[in-house]
Design brief:
single chain, alpha+beta, Neuraminidase, D-Maltodextrin-Binding Protein, domain 2, six-stranded mixed sheet, globular
Length: 720
């Protein structure tokens, strides 16, 4: 579960500037990077292609059937030959684990015996390294008998081999990287045991080729990625960690690296493909959305400065398939002119939304949408700066934003006006709760394409079988079963998810500015929740506890209801979250909520995209995208199909009472927005109670500080 970003209340002062900005008209925007766009062409006849593609500019190689090496000649235009789309088999032997091609066109293949391992990882033993000329002649065969190595997994492009300078080849072999000269002799190596992933860790490692014969070793460990340049010193190599020039920003596991003789390529969450040459500096090369392509390319082959080949895994008519595109570099001014819109996302752009942008761009003769992703600790600050600029984004993906904050300052346009005029959508098409949830001061700020439900589960003999209870009921449950914890989540997490609404209703009056945190009742709540939560203090901290009283689950789709509730391995009651009056209550997690910025100069085009996105049945949303649809007709269709025999392989179909259970869950799901004030207050409580848990302050001292801080926060909010 992703924690909502904390949004400082003072940022409201910053956003107030929006109200005083005059409409600046339509900005002159230009697609591409430095005036160039890589125009994408879908290649046909690629159904039999395999994986692990490489190119020397003349041939396109890949591992195909039987783990053999295949190749296809490339024409002068960079396109693979059409007479034999699958190419011809190059290697005589099957079982190639990895291969590489030198800048001179020589081919190196790595073979090894593979076997399972007790831990579920892969053991490689023996085998050989063979060098071939372009005509298929084998130049040498280096035996690797006696060598063994264990790896967590074997990805499609494993990275065991890399071609260096002067005919040298680097081979990853367990705790060592071997250096093999042009004659097939092992002439040196590098000890990498100190930086490899730890025993049992599932992180990956690989060699990458760079410009001018440079070779890099990359390892993933404990959620971070590190790249090392291999520096040759006589008969050995040493590792030098890459730093500066943008390398540190690529330490997370969110992006992908691709090696080539022209330089290393990298694509991160921002959807921009970057290249790194011999100088070690990263430069922007292309933006995938400029090329009307997705940003999660599985294969990227840098054929030349003018051409890139990219492969994607896509969903078409309910089936997964592979598509390959040839990208040719062109001047942006040579392409048909379109009005350029910007869709801003924080963290990541969802697959369905990204796919809709691509399809919209391909279909529209007038508009083109560029996706901009704001990521990192200062993402919200950067976005707010852009919003008050003379060239704000036109569309906002709202799922990770404080929508109340933006809605109160009328940063977002009122979509009610567009719904009234629309010929494709109307208000009654959507679940009413969704539209009510995204309404701020009477203005509809955005519309999600779908949602997921969060719920609490318990044992019916302990919690009762029916949904709905109060926080007092939850406290009574812990009294009835002394010594047992609610769950293993931290105090901070439970404070927000179990007690957040209770805290705001009981101890805060936003209208009068009064707070009641310096009270015995609040201190009792803190003591009770701390006693029945996990010992972790961080928001995401979770520990295993014996026999927890409740369990938090996310119901992404109908089958999750069957799996966790109605057909669970143990009898389960879906009791939901505590409500102030004991009515059933579930929390919504909206998906792909999109709004239009008030100051956009392209509001009509922005609404056309929202119509396009929400009026289509995007790839059977409820079945394959992993969430419930927000449109009523799609919900009804989902429920109708759920009772069709054979609908699910695992469960066959749903029973009528299970359909009714899902209907009731959706009917009692709370779609209301939580503003930054609520989260700031919860954050203050969690921060200040830390000194009480550490024994540095008494609970009375802590609650006085909380009282003062929250009172100040609320009173400042009243003056805005």
């Amino acid at each position: 579960m992703k924690k909502r970003r904390y949004l400082c209340r003072s940022s409201l002062l910053f956003l107030t500037a929006v109200l005083f900005l005059s409409a600046c008209g339509k900005a002159e925007r230009q697609r591409g990077i430095e005036g160039y766009i890589y125009e994408a062409e879908l290649l046909s006849g690629t159904e039999d292609w395999g994986s692990n593609f490489k190119s020397n500019g003349t041939w396109l190689y890949y591992i195909g059937y039987g783990s053999a090496l295949y190749r296809i000649p490339l024409g002068e235009d960079g396109k693979p030959e059409r007479e034999n789309p699958a190419g011809a088999r190059f290697s005589a032997d099957d079982g190639i684990l990895d291969y590489t091609i030198s800048a001179d066109g020589e081919i190196y293949c790595f073979y090894a015996d593979t076997g399972g391992h007790d831990t579920g990882s892969l053991e490689l033993s023996g085998g050989r390294l063979s060098k071939y000329l372009e005509d298929g002649e084998e130049v040498y065969r280096l035996s690797l008998d006696g060598r063994k190595a264990v790896y967590a997994s074997l990805p499609a492009a494993p990275g065991f081999l890399a071609a260096g300078r002067e005919g040298r080849i680097f081979l990853l072999s367990g705790d060592e990287i071997l250096v093999v000269d042009e004659t097939g002799a092992v002439v040196g190596g590098a000890d990498i045991s100190a930086v490899r992933p730890g025993e049992g860790y599932s992180g990956t490692e690989k060699l990458l080729e760079g410009e001018d014969g440079r070779v890099y070793y990359m390892t993933e460990n404990e959620g971070r990625r590190t790249a090392y340049a291999l520096l040759e010193e006589e008969n050995s190599c040493r590792l030098q960690a890459m730093s500066g020039g943008g390398w540190e920003e690529k330490s997370s596991l969110a992006g992908r690296f691709y090696g080539s003789h022209h330089g290393i390529l990298y694509c991160g969450p921002d959807g921009i493909l970057q290249c790194c040459g011999g100088e070690g500096e990263w430069k922007d090369m292309l933006r995938w959305s400029d090329s009307n392509l997705w940003q999660n390319a599985q294969e990227v082959i840098w054929i030349s400065e003018e051409r890139v080949l990219a492969g994607f895994t896509v969903l078409r008519d309910g089936d997964v398939s592979h598509e390959y595109y040839l990208l040719n570099r062109r001047k942006a001014e040579e392409l048909p002119e379109k009005e350029e819109l910007v869709l801003a996302c924080t963290g990541v752009c969802g697959n369905d939304l990204e796919d809709a942008v691509i399809r919209f761009n391909r279909d529209s003769d007038r508009y083109h949408i560029t996706i901009e992703v704001y990521d990192g600790e200062d993402a919200i600050t950067k976005l707010d700066t852009r919003l008050v600029s003379s060239d704000p984004p036109d569309l906002l993906e709202l799922s990770e934003l404080d929508v109340v904050k933006y809605g109160e300052k009328q940063v977002l346009a009122d979509l009610n006006e567009y719904l009234k005029k629309s010929g494709l959508l109307k208000r009654e098409d959507f679940l009413e709760g969704i539209l009510e949830g995204y309404t701020v001061n009477g203005r509809l700020t955005g519309i999600p394409s779908g949602f997921m439900c969060f719920t609490l589960l318990g044992r019916p003999e302990e919690t009762g079988e029916k949904a709905g209870w109060t926080l007092e009921d939850m406290m009574a449950l812990t009294e009835a079963y002394p010594g047992r914890k609610l769950n293993g989540f931290s105090f901070y997490f439970n404070l927000e998810w179990l007690c957040g609404d209770y805290v705001m209703d009981k101890f805060v009056n936003l209208e009068s500015g009064e707070c009641k945190f310096d009270s015995d009742e609040f201190r009792s709540l803190v003591q009770w929740l701390a006693e029945h939560s996990g010992s972790g203090r961080g928001y995401y901290d979770e520990e295993e506890v014996e026999d927890p009283l409740i369990r938090l689950e996310r119901i992404f789709e109908f089958i999750d209801y069957l799996r966790y509730v109605s057909r669970s391995d143990e009898k389960t009651a879906m009791i939901g979250f505590p409500s102030h009056d004991g009515r059933p209550l579930y929390q919504a997690g909206p998906v792909n909520a999109v709004g239009i910025t008030e100051k956009s100069g392209y509001r009509d085009g922005a609404w056309q995209f929202i119509e396009f996105f929400l009026s289509q049945e995007v790839e059977r949303t409820w079945q394959l995208s992993g969430y419930f649809p927000s449109r009523r007709d799609l919900v009804e269709k989902m429920l109708e199909e759920a009772v069709t025999p054979g609908y699910w392989y695992e469960y066959d179909c749903a029973a009528p009472e299970e359909v009714q259970g899902v209907e009731e869950m959706i009917a009692h799901t709370d779609f209301s927005l939580r503003d930054g004030v609520r989260e700031d207050i919860i954050g203050i409580i969690a921060e200040e109670t830390e000194s009480y848990f550490n024994g540095d302050k008494s609970l009375e001292e802590v609650t006085k500080v909380i009282q003062n801080r929250v009172s100040t926060l609320v009173q400042e909010g009243q003056g805005m």
